[in-house]
Amino acid sequence: MSISTSVPAYAAPAAKAPLERTTVPLRPVGEFDVLIDIKYAGICHSDIHQARDGWGEGIFPMVPGHEIAGVVTEVGPGVTRYAVGDHVGVGCFVDSCRDCEYCAQGLEQYCVNGTTATYNDRDKNGEPTYGGYSTHVVVDENYAVRIPDGLALDIAAPLLCAGITLYSPLRHWKAGPGKKVAIVGLGGLGHMGVKIAHALGAEVTVLSQSLRKKDDGQRMGAEHYYATSDLATFEQLAGTFDLIVSTVSAPLDLDAYLRMVKTDGAFVNVGAPEEPNSLNMFSLIGGRKTLAGSMIGGIAETQEMLDFCAAHGIGSEIEVIRAEQINEAYERVLASDVRYRFVIDTSTI
Fold it and tell me: Which intervals hold domain Enoyl reductase (ER) (predicted)?
């Protein structure tokens, strides 16, 4: 290997502790592995949840980051998919069982035996996994994706989570011409939902707490924009949408939102609140409506998403930061003070 077995990184030493510069082990490049020189890493709200034990007990020290874009600098002897110099990305997981029915269908994110998360997890050897807030990562070639030439690495990085998290449900529930789609929340996830749904040909509405980002939403492709703080919105839009995708990480009044769904329509959650939610079942029964969830996408679908975004000129809208700004960025994410995704320039680590 051309670099040492430890690499610089930013890690949370304990739950709720500020992230700090450190070094973490880098596993050797195996037969089917690629070594990636990370150029950019997006900051996802889920990084904050996990670094602060919001979703349960974490593994510390924790190096977050599952929106990774970089360049291949070494390949194992059995690698056939990539060569040194290729632009590649790594998303939310770096392995799965490869044998179950869902892995066989390209739905590795729903692996029966559990995927290996890019960070805050343990690999098949029991070693902790470390994410993209670092200078390098080693992954199996089958769990990396190719970043097309038409996508710059900085705007591509957030697509590895935010992009696929919205692309997968929009495709699954057939967003397209003739369909009315609403995106709840215009943040790091939501702005990608607007862009992708518009590119798919759907009529897009943003449902946001206020009209503060209305101009942005319309510029990204939303035909309509409503404030959910105005209760009249829910009455005005009753029975309007074929599909609503919620990107927010806070509990919602599901009954109110389901009233806006058409008969046989769906309300899909991709945001993951830490608190439980409640629901009156009559909100579903009355219109044969579906309340669903969706989690990222498989490797093949992630590649499809990247190719789609490149073909349609879609990238995340980003604010590039230095590594020493990570803790400040976390607070700004919690305050909704980012338009629309922080991306770490990992050369500053």
Answer: 17-344
The reply to whether 142 and 12 lie within a common domain is: yes
* d(C-alpha 68, C-alpha 88), whole Å: 8
pLDDT (0 to 100) of residue 2: 46
Q: What is the pLDDT of residues 100-142, one digit of tens each?
A: 999 999 999 999 999 999 999 999 999 999 999 999 999 999 9
The CATH number given to whatever domain includes residue 87 is 3.90.180.10
Lowest mean pLDDT among 52-56, 286-290, 316-320: 52-56
Q: Taking a C-beta distance cutoff of 8 angstroms, is the pair 193, 183 a contact?
A: yes
Let me know if residue 304 belongs to a domain. Answer: no
* Rounded CA separation 237/257 (Å): 10
What is the CB neighbour count within 10 angstroms for residue 77?
A: 9
Tens of pLDDT, residue by residue over 22-35, are 999 999 999 999 99
Q: Are residues 333 and 236 in the same domain?
A: no
Spell out the residues 6+ positions from residue 143 whose beta carbon is closer than 8 angstroms to its own: 90, 93, 94, 95, 96, 299
> Is the confidence at residue 1, as pLDDT, over 70?
no
The 3 state secondary structure assigned to 59-119 is CCCECCCCCEEEEEEEECCCCCCCCCCCEEEECCEEECCCCCHHHHCCCHHHCCCCCEECC
* Measured distance CA(164)–CA(168) in Å, rounded: 6
d(CA 336, CA 339): 8
Domain residues for the domain of 261 are 163-293
Q: How confident is the model at residue 272 (pLDDT cuts 50, 70, 90)?
A: confident
Assess contact for 34 and 74: CB atoms under 8 A: yes
Domain count, the chain: 2
Q: Look up tokens 């034990």; give the residue.
A: 53
Residues 17, 99 within the same domain: yes
